[in-house]
Protein: HTH lysR-type domain-containing protein
Amino acid sequence: MQLRQLEYVVALIQWKTMRKAAQHLYVSEATISQQIRELETELGLSIFQREGNPLEPGLDLQVMTDTAYVETQHSFDQFTTAEPLEAHLKALRKPLLVIFGAEDQIAVGAANDLYEYHMVPGVQVIVLPGVGHSPQVEAPNKTAELIVAFLNNRP
Structure:
């Protein structure tokens, strides 16, 4: 498996057609098709349904992503319910920068999370206005600027 093959998979999921994915990746449709077939052969599974446009993930890919989501959620639940977040972070005894988006609709209870973070010694919490759940994607320059400033101010 090669990183480039995974990039092709992500592009096909994002752009839904071979033509659009090829245009955005600056490669031919034949190149993407060949690389996807090689990846499917190597993994022994069907990544995409071959009929029609837009391209749809095949059952194997759906099962893989569903399983990954469930496992990730399960691990997160175990981590957050076994011990309060505050206790996990205090135990690290490391500087901590937390960047939240003020418009975050996914992190339910973000206000409560902010309170928990403020209970950790040495924490720096920043809330970016007009930004949602993924500051690193929605405001990459500002997020990078904050991280660099945080790292430069460490003892």
User: Anything to note?
Assistant: The chain has two domains: 3-63, 84-152. The first helix runs from residue 3 to 15. The first strand starts at residue 48 and ends at 49.
